[in-house]
Amino acid sequence: MKMKKICGMLLVVVLAAGSLAGCGSGAKQEEPVKKDAAKQEDSKEKLEVFGDNLKYDPNVEIAGGEDVTLNFWVPAAWEEYYTKWSSEYSKIHPNVSFEFTITSFDDHWKKVPMAIQSKSGPDIFWMHNSVNEIMLPHMEALPEDKFPIDQVKADFRNVEANIVDGKLYYVDMGLMTGVIFYNKDIWEEAGLTDADIPKNWDDFREIAKQLTVKDDKGNIQVAGFNTNNAEYIWVDLMYQQGKWLFGPDEETPVFESKEALNAAQLMYDIYNTDGSGSGTQPKGEEAFANGKAAMIYCWGWASNYFKSNFPDLNYGAFALPVFDENSFPAYGRTNGDVSVGVSKYADDAKKEAALDFVLYQMCNDDMIIEYDVFDGMAPSKYSLSDHPSIQEEPVLKVEAEMLDKSIWPGAVPDNYFSDIQKYIGQSILVNKTEPAKALEEAAKMVPEGLKGRNFKTVERKAAVADEMSDQ
Asked: Cα separation of 221 and 198, whole Å?
């Protein structure tokens, strides 16, 4: 009996083997399975490719479909924005997920560089051009095959100025400028209308005098104009006159010129000759929010500050006046917030996913617009300047009109601007120092603050460079 059972089992095995042999080789057996998988893939709904010149194809598989988790570091102010858009990205690529580390603005650039250099930090992170010197050595450049430079330039402003040693690490998501905010209620009480918005500084001075309110002792109650805490307006006044901030070596700040004196003199005259402002007033945005200033010079970020903290403040904005409204190369300086950075130390799969997220960010108009409205910037992307969300925001609309006549000097060390404020702005507006003497002091002190900073300006790469000249 046992032998019969064994023989029976052997017969089954032999018959089964013969049956398999009749089906052909193993390779041919797998072919129908592959065809079925291909049919299944083809049956998936294709997502729409989006972008202008630079394109994003959401149907391209990332990291071979393997699970990838990106460690993403952002300041708290951007947490909601990036968690939202990373979630949207993961809907397209379910194999890519994000883990967030949230920092404060103060801590972000203390912690991120240290973490990346130790190769234990983020794979992807919120980036700002002010830290180029620290971060670029540790960042992955945008590869030409994924980010063709001619397509990037066709879509975005300021690209050439962002190229470092032949490599592009980010683009500007938006660009910010300084504008004049004006209180519409105070403006109307003074009998002024939109037709009175000044185009040149002479007319501006007259309007500022008209808007200034003083008590019986001559103390300013409402300043016609306040640029306190933003005394770097001097930089804009230089660019308006067609003069570079730095010499031909692209690193030495220059203060000896008639244009430098014109700029400083205008600041002196508005405050000390016309009596339209006071260096002892609160900083501009604070005075403006509390009805203590009719007009201020401030950058676009203040639009969100006022919207969030003073929602009933009735204000408008207009472009900086210029010395000669019929002939000026630029309104002034601009700067931007940039696309996220990618660590060059991330492994290949994470690097691929992180760079793909950067491309997604650059091609996603909704993502760019939301960023710009939140941050008070006009879009760097040419096609978005007339977007309804930009045109309905008074400050962003004005910024958009100014962008093509604005100059980015590069990732200038912050102490350059703080020294301009101190040795020119505050010296003139608070201490009432004669402009020539203030410039003489700035010429001694500002270069000292730049020593060892390894900085070179990119201002000569500006689109308006042909209209500018050296000192």
From this structure: 23
